[in-house]
Design brief:
single chain, elongated
């Protein structure tokens, strides 16, 4: 994932959580961890389990 793509993922996560805040009781992210590089970078952690920018944003939101 490039930095701009990671930034886009982070913004999507933040926008989604803000939009659904108070409207639904649960929100689920598609993938916690990337499993296969050919299937896209949807996870909050990379193939080597290093956290992406969106992972940190989610941690901040849950505090």
């Amino acid at each position: 994932m490039t930095d701009s793509t990671e930034s886009a993922q982070t913004q999507y996560l933040k926008d989604s959580l803000e939009f659904f805040n108070g409207k639904v009781s649960h929100v689920f992210w598609y993938a916690l961890h990337d499993e296969n590089p050919s299937k896209g970078d949807f996870g909050l952690t990379r193939l080597d389990f290093q956290p992406r920018e969106a992972y940190s944003a989610l941690q901040e939101r849950l505090r």
